[in-house]
Batch of 4 targets.
Target 1
Amino acid sequence: MNLARALDLLGIFVFALSGASLAARKGFDAVGLVVLALATGLGGGIIRDVLVGIRPPTALAEQAYLLVPVAAALVVLVAHDRVLRLERPVLVFDAAGLGLFAVSGAVIAVDQGLGWAASVFLGTTTAVGGGIVRDVLAREVPVVLRADSTLYAVPAALGAALTVAAVETDLYGPVAATAIAGAVFLVRVLALRFGWRAPTAR
Amino acid sequence: MNLARALDLLGIFVFALSGASLAARKGFDAVGLVVLALATGLGGGIIRDVLVGIRPPTALAEQAYLLVPVAAALVVLVAHDRVLRLERPVLVFDAAGLGLFAVSGAVIAVDQGLGWAASVFLGTTTAVGGGIVRDVLAREVPVVLRADSTLYAVPAALGAALTVAAVETDLYGPVAATAIAGAVFLVRVLALRFGWRAPTAR
Amino acid sequence: MNLARALDLLGIFVFALSGASLAARKGFDAVGLVVLALATGLGGGIIRDVLVGIRPPTALAEQAYLLVPVAAALVVLVAHDRVLRLERPVLVFDAAGLGLFAVSGAVIAVDQGLGWAASVFLGTTTAVGGGIVRDVLAREVPVVLRADSTLYAVPAALGAALTVAAVETDLYGPVAATAIAGAVFLVRVLALRFGWRAPTAR
C-alpha cells in the first residue's frame, strides 16, 4: 500500500468517525453507527466514481475501503465517551481529509477527461458529499448548507480549483498535491478557529 | 448552440432559481444557495444519465451546465428580494422547464433503447427529480409527495407518455416536441391557477 | 417467467406496499403513493445495479419491474383501510422480501467479480436500500438507524454473508438459496416477535 492509499484510508476513517459519532449522539443503534460510518466515509468517493463512470467504485473494488468505516463504527460503539472528548482532534483530522479528498477527487476527474468546471465540482463533491449523505440520513440540515457553519465547502472548492490549475499547467505532482491539501487544511482550521462564515442572501 | 440546448439551459436556470430561492428562504448561506441551485437544476438530468448509462452525465461533460446554476445562485444572492417578487414568473418558467425536461428525458430514454414504461419513468424523473433532491437536502417533504401541492408530476408523466407514443408512431419531431411540452406547460399552469390536485388514499 | 423472477417481483410488490402505506399514513396524495411505492420497491435493486455497473438497471430494463410498484400503489389507494388491517401479513411478506433480496443481491455482486466484503455490502444494500430511500423521501429517520427498531439489516447482512460463503465453497444452488433466504426470514420474524434489537453505543 502506497502513501496516497494510506492517506485516502485515513481520511475515510476520520470521516467515518464523524458519521458514527453523529449516530451515537442521535441515539441510533449499532446498525445506525455502521450505516452512517459507511455513508460518511465512502459517500463522497462513491458519488464521484458513479458520476465519472469508474465501476465498480473504488470503495467496492478494494476490500479495505469497506472495512475501515466498520472499524470506525466499532471504535465509537465501544469508546463513545473517549471519542467525544476527542472532538477537536477529530475536527482537525476531518480538515485533513477534506484537503486530501478535494485534491484526489479533482485529479481523478481530470484524468477521466472532464473539463475544469466538472473537475472542481467533483473534487468538492468528493470532499463534502459523504457529510451531506450523513446529514440527510440522520435527518439533519446538511452542515454545508447552514449559515451558522464555518467555511467547509469553500476551501474544498478552492483546493479542487488549484489542483485543476496545477494539472493544466503541468505543475501537478507530490509537492503540489501536498501543498494544496495543506492549504485547504489550513484554511479550514483557521475558519474553525476564527469563525469564518460564507455570506448569506440579502 | 442550437435551440434545444438553449431551452435545456433555460430550464436548468429556472429550476436552479427555485433551488437558490428555497435556500435563501431557509436562511442558508451562499454555499447553500449554490448547492441547492446545482442540485435542483442538474439533479433530474444527472439521475437520468446515471440510470440510462450516459457517462459522464451531460451536466458534467458540458461546462455550461455547471455554470448556469452557479449564475442562478449569484442572482438570488445579490437580488433575493427582487427574485421573491418574481415568484409568479418563476413558477411559469418552472412549468416551461417541466414540459421541456419531460419530453427531452423521455426521448433520451427511448434513444437508449428502453421500453415505454422505463421511458415514461425517466422523462418524469428528469422533470421532477431535481425538485425532489432540492427538498430532501433542505429537509422539506418533497413537494410532489404532498397532498396540498397542485399537479406537477402528473402533467410531466403525461407529457413523457405522449412523447414515447409520438416516437413509437414516428410522429416525433420539432412540432410534436413543442406541442407536447406546451401541453405539459398548459396543464401545469392551469393546475396552479385552479388548484387542481391529485386524489388521496381513502 | 421463472420462479426466481416471480419471487423477485413478489418481494418488490410487498416492499412497494410498505412504501405506499407509509405515504397514505403521512397524508400524501396519489402521486406520493406511487413515488414512495417505486422508491421502496425498486430503490435497493437500482442502487445495487448502479454500483456494480449493470445498465440500465434491471428495474428499467424489464417493464414488469416498474408496473408492479404502481399496482401496489393503486391497491393502497383504493383499499387503504384493508391494507392497514393487513399490517402483520405485510410485515411477514416484507421479511420474505428481505431474505430474497439479501441472497439475490449478494449473488449478483459475486457474479460481477466483487470481493466478499463488497458482496455482503451489496446484498444488504439491496435488501434495506429501498426502505432507506422511502424513509428519507418521507422525512422519517430511516428505520434501520433507529435504536427502537427490531433487527432488520442484521439478518440481511448475515444472509448476504452466508450467500457469499456458499458461492465461494461451491455450495450455492436452489437449495442453499432457499435455506439462506428462509433463515433470514426466520430471524427477522423472530426479531419482530421477541423484540430483538441491536446494541447501542455506551
Target 2
Amino acid sequence: MELFIDRDALSRGLARIQGIIERRTTQPVLSHVLLHAREGSLRLTATDTEVGYVGEIAANVQKNGELAVDAASLFQIVRSLPEATVRLTRLDGNRLDVKSGRAKFTLHGLAAEEYPTLPPFEASATATMESKDLSRLVEQVAFSIATEDVRWGINGAHVEEVTVDGARRIRMVATDRHRLACAEAPFEGSTRFTPRMLVPRKALAVLGKLLDGGAETIDVDFGESALQLRRPTETFWFRLLDGEFPDYRAVIPSDNKHRAIVRRADLASTLRRVVILIPDRARPVRFAFGADELTVDVHNVDRGDVSESLPIELDGNPVTVGFNARYLLEILGVMRGDRVVLELAHPLAPCLVRDPDVNDAQFVVMPMRLD
Amino acid sequence: MELFIDRDALSRGLARIQGIIERRTTQPVLSHVLLHAREGSLRLTATDTEVGYVGEIAANVQKNGELAVDAASLFQIVRSLPEATVRLTRLDGNRLDVKSGRAKFTLHGLAAEEYPTLPPFEASATATMESKDLSRLVEQVAFSIATEDVRWGINGAHVEEVTVDGARRIRMVATDRHRLACAEAPFEGSTRFTPRMLVPRKALAVLGKLLDGGAETIDVDFGESALQLRRPTETFWFRLLDGEFPDYRAVIPSDNKHRAIVRRADLASTLRRVVILIPDRARPVRFAFGADELTVDVHNVDRGDVSESLPIELDGNPVTVGFNARYLLEILGVMRGDRVVLELAHPLAPCLVRDPDVNDAQFVVMPMRLD
C-alpha cells in the first residue's frame, strides 16, 4: 500500500469514526481503523461490531493494499502534520509509514485479516430522507432515551411509519418514563418496520455527528435486525435492539383543558436562571399558569428563593403544576419555533409540549407533586 | 443596603474572585463574597485567609450596608440576568434580593460580621511595575513550581531584586528539580525582599488572571510576610510562604560548549507531534544536534516510531541528548521571540534555554539518560 492523500480530507474522515471505535476494549483490534487503498480512493472502515462505518476518501493510490492501525493515534498524528499532503506507505511487519513534510511516523498496525468483517447486509426496503430531517429526528428524540432502565424496551428509540395529516412519515419516539419525545419527518420509497426494533443510544449519537454537513439526502436501508444509512461516499450500519417499546400513544394526552402559549426563548431563559438554585437532585419547580402570566418559582431551597413571571396566552382556567425544570429546558432546547404550547388536563396529568405552528414533534413531561 | 449596578460590571467583578473563594471548605463563610455598599460604589471582598481580594465597582447606592453571600451562586445568577441593570437589596434575616427585569432571586446570606477580616497590611516598600511585565513573570515562571515536593523551599516561586546589565530588576524563579524557570522585569520605586519569601502557587494562579486587562501599571507593596498588589480599583493581597529557595544560580549552566539556535515555532510543532506517541509517563526523546540539522526521534514505544529533522545553527561539536519533550514544550510555550537557543556543556549536563535576542528570561531542563 502506498498513496498520497489530502491531510484535511483524511483528518475529517478520521474525525468521523472517533465516536465508533472503542478505546478501552478487551479486543485491541476494535480500537483500530482499517485502511484499504484501491483505485483512486482510501477506504476507512471502523466498527465496534454493533455499529459500523465505511467511508471513501479520494487519494492518489500508487499501490493497493490494506492495514489496520490505531484510530486515535492516526487521527492525532494526521491533524498535527505540517504539510497539506500526506504519504501513507505500508511497511513490512504491519507497520504504517506516515510522512508529511519533515515529519515521519511509523505506526505499529495489525494485518487487515485480523479486522472484523462487517456482516452481510441485504436491504428489503429503502427509504430516502433529507439529511436535515433525519438530523432533526435524532436531535429531538435521542436525549429522552432511558439510560439504565431495567425495562429493555425503552433502552433505545422506537421507529415506525405513520400517516400524519394524510402524509407518510417516519416517526422516532423515546422515553425514560419521566419524559417522552416523538418526532416525524417525510420520506420517499418504502420502509420495513417491525414492532420490535429499537435504535440504540450509541447509533444515534454517532448518527447525529455523521449527519452534520454532507449530502442533502440519505438512503435508509432496512435489513435483518439492522439498518444501514447510505450517502455517496459513506455507509453507516448498526444493529437494532430487540425489544418491545411500550404503548406510547396512551401517554400522549389529548383532552387538555388548560393550554398556555409562551415564547420559547423567554421560557428557556427563565428556566436557565431558575435551575441555578436547584441542586442536581430533582426538585419540582412551581409553574402557576394565570390568566395572562406564568409565574415560575422555587422556594426554600438551601441557597434561597427565585421567582419569575412571563406573559402567556392561556386557554382554560388557571392551574398550578410542578415540573422538573431541567426536563423542560432540554425539550425547549431541541424545539425550533418561536412559540411553544404547554397543554394539560389537570395538575397531576402528563403535560404535552409542542410547537403551535408546526406539527412535526411532540413532547410529554410527567408532573411532579408540589410539597 | 440597596443599590443599582451594571450587570456586566458586577459579573466581571464576580468573575475575578471565583479563583479565590473556596467551594469545598469546612468554613462555609469562605465560599462567600462580602458585599459592601457605600457612596457610589459596591466593594467586593473575597478571601481564603491566605489570599484576599478587594475590588470596587461603581454603583448607584441608595442605602449603605453590607452582607456576605455565596460567591458562585451570585456569579451564576448575575451573568444570567435579563436586563443590563441589577438591583441588590438587603432584606431581613441576612437575605439578598437580586432583581433585574422580570427575574427576582432571594439568596440566603451571612452577616458581614461573620466574614473574616483581612489582616492589617503595612507597606515597608513599594515597587511599581508595568502590568504586562508582571503578567509575563507569572506566565513564564509559575508552571515550573513543584507540585508536591517534600522540600518546602521549592513549593513556591522565589522573588528577589537583581541587577541585570546594570539595571534593577525584579526576578522570579521556580523549579521542580526537573526544570527551572527564571524571568526578570524592570520596576520603579523600592523593594524589601528577604531570603525566605516564596510566592505560593495559588497566589500566582489568581494573579495571572487578575492581570488580564485593567490598568497599565501596578503597585507592589512589601509587608510583613505578605505582598499586596494595587491598582486604582482593586487590591490583591497574599501571604508568603516561609522557606529557603535553593541556590538556583548553581543550576544555571554557563560554560556551554554546544549552542544551537532554532526557530521556536518549528521546534514546538515538531515536539507536539513527537509527544503524540509517548504515553503520560516520562520517556526520553532523543535530540541529535548535527552540524546544521536537529533530529528529534522516539523509537520502540508501544505504538510506533517518530522522527523529524529541522534546521539549526550549531556552535560547537554535534551532540546527542535525551529530554522530556513535554518540559521543553511548556518552556517554548511561554517564550516570546521567534528564535530560541539551547546550550549545554555535555549530554548529561543541564540544558539552558533562552531567547538569543532578548535577555529577560532563562530556563533550564535536566537531561534524561538515553537507553
Target 3
Amino acid sequence: MTPGTFEILKQDPRGGARLGRLWTAHGPVDTPVFMPVGTQATVKAMTPAELEALDFQIVLGNTYHLNIRPGVDVIEQMGGLHSFMGWGRAILTDSGGYQVFSLAKLNRITDEGVTFQSHVDGATHVLGPESAMALQRRLGSDIAMVFDECTPYPCDRKYACQAVDRTLAWAALCARQPRAAGQLVFGIVQGSVYADLRERCARGLMELAFDGYAIGGVSVGEPHALILQGIEESVRHLPADRPRYLMGVGSHPHMVEAVARGVDMFDCVMPTRLARHGTAFTRAGKYPVKAALYSRDPRPLEEGCPCYACRHFSRAYVRHLMNVNEILGIRLLTMHNLYRYGAFVQEMREAIAAGDYGTYARRFVVEYGNGRAGEPANGRDE
Amino acid sequence: MTPGTFEILKQDPRGGARLGRLWTAHGPVDTPVFMPVGTQATVKAMTPAELEALDFQIVLGNTYHLNIRPGVDVIEQMGGLHSFMGWGRAILTDSGGYQVFSLAKLNRITDEGVTFQSHVDGATHVLGPESAMALQRRLGSDIAMVFDECTPYPCDRKYACQAVDRTLAWAALCARQPRAAGQLVFGIVQGSVYADLRERCARGLMELAFDGYAIGGVSVGEPHALILQGIEESVRHLPADRPRYLMGVGSHPHMVEAVARGVDMFDCVMPTRLARHGTAFTRAGKYPVKAALYSRDPRPLEEGCPCYACRHFSRAYVRHLMNVNEILGIRLLTMHNLYRYGAFVQEMREAIAAGDYGTYARRFVVEYGNGRAGEPANGRDE
C-alpha cells in the first residue's frame, strides 16, 4: 500500500470510534494505536525485539533530543533512525516544538523559528519549521510532525491566538519542505481551551492537506472536562478520512473517551516512566508495587496477564528488585505496562470491530480505577 | 546423577587443566565454568531467560545482601531462591564472610561469628558459621560456601595465621550444619600470601571432606605473580577429584593461568559491573565504548560476535545510549560481555577436550590485551 493510505475498516454505528489501518513506508499501523515513546532512539529499558514481540507497529522518536545527542548527522551517517536503533517498523518523530517550549531555555521566538539553549549543556540552537522538517527528513522517520507552538495551561486568549497564527504560518512552511521517501507529514491543531481558535487552526491546517492531523496542547494541566472539550473542538473540524493523533495523552480513561470521539493514535511516556517509579498498570487501575503490602505477595503484577514478567515473577520479587534499584525491576514493570497498553488498544479495536464500542467504553470506565488495582490477596496479613 | 558427583572427563596431558562436570540438584555444571554474579537475586540487567539463552548453568547469590534485603524469610516464604528469582538451574551462594569483612562496619569478631552493622541502614546483624549455613539452607542454594575470614592484602603473617585458625574452626562447625536437600558445601582456603598457611588451611579443610574447595583471599590487591602463587599453593594441596573454585577472579589472563593450574570454577562481577561503566570485553581485551572514537563507528561491539547486541547494533548506537544514560546501553553491554565470558570458558573447555590446552593458553595470552581491542576502523577520521 502507498504510504499515507488510511483505510477505515469499521465505523462505530453509535459514535465516533473507528477501526483503521494507516500505511507507512515501514508497514501498517492498526488504529486505535498506542505508540511507545523512544525519545533518545530507545524505548526506555526495551529492546526492539521485545517491542516487536509485544506487537507494537510504531514508536516515537524526538527530534529535539536526537539533535542534541548524538546529533542528527551521526544518525544520518549510520543510515537513518531505523537503522541506528535497529527498528524495522514505523517511526513517528516529534518536531521538537513541544520540547523547545517546555524543556529548553528560550531566547527568542520569531516567525523563522526559536532560538534556545539546550537543556543539556546550554549550547545555543535554533529550531524552526524549515530546520525541524530538514532534521526529520534526515532522520528518515515515517511520520514527521510540523513545528508548532504548544501553549501551556492556563493560557490567555491573546497568547493562544498568537500561537495559532504562528502554528498556521509555520505549518504552511513545513508543508512545502522536502521529505524523506514515503515520509508522511501531520499538522498539529493548537488553540488552547478556545473552541473558535481550535476551529480556525483545524480549518487552516486542512487547507494544507496534511497526511494526518494531531491534537496538541491538550492534557497540559487542564481539568478532565476541558481535556474532552479540547479533543471534541479539534476533531469536529478535521477531515474524517485522515488519521487523528492525540499527542501525549495516555491515561486509560482519557484514551477510552478520546477513541469514542474519533481519535486514532496516542503516545505517552506513562507506561515506561511510571515503570521506572515502580508503578504497575492493570485492567483495574495502577498501583505502586514498592509498597510494603506486596513484600510477600506471590501473585504476578497482574493476575491472568500472559506477559513475560507476569508468567515468571511475583510482586514480592519485583518489589524487592525496585527497592534495591535493580534494572531488572524496571525491565519487568516496563514490559508489563507496555503489554497492558498494547492489550488495551487491542481490546478497543476488537470492540469497534464487534460494533459495540459504547458498551465496552462504559464497562471500562466502571471497572477501571475502582480501587481493586493491586488489592491484597485474601488471607494475607499485611 | 547424585548431587556432588564430579566427573573429570579429560585431564590435560601436559598440565593441570581439566574438563569436568559437576552435578547439582539443579542440573550439571560443565567446567571450567564462569558463574555470573547475581548478588541481589538478579544478575544485573539480565532476565533468567537471557542467561539460559547464553547457556549459563549456574549463577551466584549473596547471603549477606539477601539477608538484609528482602530478608531470607521473604525468600523462603516465596519458595526459596530459585523460585523467587525464576531461575531453574544451579545457584551457588556466598556465605557472607567476604561481605562482612569488606562492606560492613565490624563491631566484634569472636569464635561464634561476627557482629556488624549493615552497609544499608546501619542495623546490627550477627553472622557466623551456624547462621550462615542456616541462611543458605533456607535459601535452598545448590552449593553453599562455608563462613570464612577473608584477609586483605597486604596482611601480616600473624593476622593471616589467626584467620586460618578461625576459618578452619568455622569450617568444622559449618560441616556439621543441616543442609537443604541435595545441597553441596564447599570449604575455602585462606592463608594470604603465605605458602605454609595455605597448605595448613587446605589440609585442614580436606579432613572435613567438603564437596568442593574454594580458593579465597586471592586477587585482593596483590601483584600478578603473587596471585598465581596463591593459586598454586592452594591447588597443590587440594584433592584432585573435587572441584576447585577460585573466588572473585575474572580477568581473562588470570583465568587462563588458573585453569592451567587446575582451577574449575570462577565468578566475577567484571562483565556486568564494567558493562554499567561502558566497557566492552573482546577477544583482544577490553575498551571503553563511550570514547568519542566510537561516535560514528558502524561496527558491532566485537566484530564477528554472534550475540544479540552485536548482531543488531553499532558501537555508535551503544555509545550514544551510554552517553545519555539509557538502560538499553547497559543491557547490550552486559549481554555482550556475558556472551564473551561464556564463549571464553567454552573455548577453554574445547581446548582441553582437544588435548592441547597449553597451545590455546599461550596463544590467548599473546592475542589478549595487545592493544587491538576496539581499534578504530580503517579510514575513519576520529
Target 4
Amino acid sequence: MSIKLHCFGESGHSYKAALALELSGLDWEPVFVDFFKGETRSEDYRANVNEMGEAPVLVDGDIRLSQSAVIQGYISEKSGKFGGKDAAEARDILRWQLWDNHKLSSQAGMTRFLINFLPQDKQPAEVIGFTKARLQAAYQVLNAHLEGRDWIVGNGVTNADLTCCGYLFYPEPFGFDRADWPAIDRWLSNIQALDGWKSPYDLMPGSPADRA
Amino acid sequence: MSIKLHCFGESGHSYKAALALELSGLDWEPVFVDFFKGETRSEDYRANVNEMGEAPVLVDGDIRLSQSAVIQGYISEKSGKFGGKDAAEARDILRWQLWDNHKLSSQAGMTRFLINFLPQDKQPAEVIGFTKARLQAAYQVLNAHLEGRDWIVGNGVTNADLTCCGYLFYPEPFGFDRADWPAIDRWLSNIQALDGWKSPYDLMPGSPADRA
C-alpha cells in the first residue's frame, strides 16, 4: 500500500513533503485537500486528519504524521535519503528546517496568500508590507549562507534544501525575485536539475487554474 | 566546563532552551546577548555566533547549536530527559515544536515585541491586530489538545511542553490571558510545579527593568 499525502497544489508546506517523497523514490500518492472550500477548518478534518487544521499530513498504514519537517524525517528514515551523513549534519538540517518554518516559508506562504488569494479590497496593506520586509531579511540570510555553496548542509541535497525551497518555485508574486539573489538563484537551479524534480502544480493536485 | 547558552531574558525562544537546561540538571551558564543594543544584528555576532542573527545559541566544547528545538534535542541526548519514550513520541514532540515555531511562539514573540518594546508611535496597529487574531487560533488548538491531558505528549513533561510555554509566562501583554483558556492555564500550572522551575526573568540575564 502506497504512502498517502494529504496536500494541495497551492501549499508550499505540502510541496516540501511531496518533493521529498517524489525524489526519494518511495511509492506515494496525493490525497487532495480542498483548502479553498474550507476543508482544513472543518470539524471532520480536525477530528480525523489533523487537529492543527493544517496540510500536509502523511499516512502510512497506522502511522499518521503532520508538519512537513516531521514528514521529511520519516521519509529519510524509510529511504535513507536527505537526512545528512551524521548527527552533526542531521542537527544542522533540523536547524534550517526550523529557521525556514519561522522566518521563510511561514512568512512567504502568508504573504503570497494575502496578495494572491484574497480579494483586493480585503488585502491588509500594512501587514503585507511588514511581512515583505521581514522576508527580505530572510532572503539575505539564505543568500549569504549559499554564497560559495551548492547545498545548504554538506555536499549534497538534504531536507534543508527541500524545506527552504518550499515557496520559492511558485509563480505568484510575493516580493521574491530570483534575479535579486544570485546565490539563491543558483541553488534553486541545482534543485531543479535533480532527477525527478517537478514544480508544485505538476506534483500535487489543485492550482489557481482550477478555481479560475 | 559547563554548557554556555547565549540568551537574554526577554527572549522566549531563549527561555525554551534555558528552561530545558535548568530542569535537566545539566551544568550550564548564561552568556548575556545585548539584543536591545543590536548585538544579534552585528557583523561580529553573525560571523562568530550565529549567521541567522538569532538567540539562543548553545556552546558545549566544539559543538555550537542554534534554534531552540535543536538545542532541546541535544539536551535530551545528554540528559536522557524530555525526549519522549519512543520514536512515535519523539516525532510528536518535534511536531509540536514545529507548530509552536510557526503558529505560537513566533507570533507571540513578535506581537509582544511590537506592543511592549517599540515606542507607541511606531507600533503597526494593523499588524498587531492581525497577529493577535492568528494567535487566538493557536491558543484554541493548544487548549483543545490539552483538554483532559496533563502534558502535550505522553504522560510526562517533554520538550513539547518546554517549547510551547516559551512566551506564555511573560508578564507583558500580547493578547494572552490564562483565564480565557482553562486547559492551557492548568497545563502552565503543571509546568510551574516542576522541581526547579523559574520564570524567564529569574532564569536569564536581562529584563525590561534593566532598561527602565
